[in-house]
Amino acid sequence: MSDAGEPRAVELGEVTPARSRHAGRRSAVELVGELVVTGTAAGDVLAHDRSTLDERWSAETWSESASVVSAASFGDGVAVGERGPEGTVRLYDADGGELRWAYDTAADVGTPQRASRFFLPFVVDTASDGDRLYVASRRYERDGDHRSFSSAVYAFDEGGEPIWTHETDASPISIDADGRRLGVAYNRCPGTHQYGLVVLNAETGAVRWEWDPGTDGQRRVGDVSLVGDGAVVASHGDYRGYRLGRGGSEEWRVDLAPPTSVGDETLYAYPNHAHATADGAVFVTGNTYSTDGRETESLHPREHTAFGYTPDGERAWTASVGGFAGELGTEGGRVAVPGAQHFRTRDADVHGLRLFGVGVGHGASLETDGVVTAVALDGEAFAAVEEPVVYHDDGEERGTYRLLLGTEGRR
After folding, report:
1. Phi, psi angle pair for 219, to nearest 5°
2. Which of 15-19, 356-360, 407-411 has the lowest mean pLDDT?
3. Nearest to 363 by CA among 325, 333, 405, 324
4. CA 189, CA 192: separation in Å to the nearest integer?
5. Which backbone phi and psi does 106 adopt, to 5 degrees?
6. Cα 329 to Cα 210: distance, rounded to the nearest angstrom
7. pLDDT at residue 290 above 60?
8. How far apart are CA 105 and CA 283, in angstroms?
9. Phi, psi for 27 (deg, rounded to 5)
10. pTM score of the predicted model
11. What is the structure's pLDDT at 372?
């Protein structure tokens, strides 16, 4: 990969450093016209001028324990979603930062069972097709060994009124909209809802079709990308990538990080992300796990890897992404993969951001001291959030909490 060059940066304030293990998303970033809008771990929203990185406006949350975890452009505004006691969605005027409306998803998914972060209502994803804002929110509960979710997917109009709502007892993880359809990926299905992918009519919210990998257990789908009349999905259920056609018919499937013998263990890694265009598909895998338990000293040979496939399902390229990626930044055929910590090897040299082309693979890369946890793409520019990290076995704090803005540079 070529070097992305030195990005411009602006500090985002103080934040508790990340540790060896991932504690979940707590930042978000979006490129909105001439602005870079960042949602912070404190729940605040900051808008910086793309040319100067001067602050144009800021907005504070009214919750003491909320963080902004998703963001999307919507009309001439920017929407942000929180992980917090109310699971709030907020829409701000992009130009001046005035709050236009807010909606508390906890009214539908329920209030938190406990005050700890993992139990807070979580706006996992936001997306827009221009006319509507789509939002997926969930809440987790646990009673002994019994785990359950309540969730809602919404379509909002510009005034903040829900046009329709789709509620289930499964856990949504990502959504994708194309103007006609809304794809919803459910990564855990412990209740009555047993489909890892649901494709809804974007106009009415009615179910158009459903699909599932057909595997045992709660794990189902990690991500969805709508393409043509079908979709590409990353399957948690069987560690594969799928290209689905009209109505969910299977066109091809590929092994990504299936159970593999390493020494005396059988290891696997979840395919967490997918992005597809007419030129092909990209899948990204996550952390290594053992079939005998979560702990292992070994690594799956295909963990933390980006895979590129042709439209016909032939593998075209592979590349390491260094560490755990909590999301993808996408723009057309470009994909940005943020590299957070690798909690098993704790190698700080792999922290950074990597960019790929769907059909060609190799792109620019950026090295960072801290971990990169959120990213957005727009034209030839990228915006990313770097967070500080302290690994448990050396105690050194690396990186700061800052916004990075740069370009891919020459390839």
Report:
1. -70, 135
2. 407-411
3. 333
4. 8
5. -60, -25
6. 26
7. yes
8. 30
9. -145, 160
10. 0.96
11. 97
* End-to-end Cα, the chain, rounded Å: 8
> Residue 222 in contact with residue 235, Cβ under 8 Å?
yes
Q: How many CB atoms lie within 10 A of CB 379?
A: 11
The boundaries of the domain holding residue 318 are 2-407
The model's pLDDT over 162-199, given as tens digits with 9 standing for 90+, comes to 999 999 999 999 999 999 999 999 999 999 999 999 99
User: Are the beta carbons of 53 and 405 closer than 8 angstroms?
Assistant: yes
Tally of domains within the chain: 1
| pLDDT score for 4 | 66
Q: Residue 260: give its domain's CATH number.
A: 2.130.10.10
Contact present, 390 and 19 (Cβ < 8 Å): yes
- Per-state percent for the chain, helix, strand, coil, to nearest 5: 5, 55, 40
Distance between CA atoms of residues 22 and 344, nearest Å: 11
Among the listed residues 246, 224, 249, the one whose alpha carbon sits nearest the alpha carbon of residue 235: 224
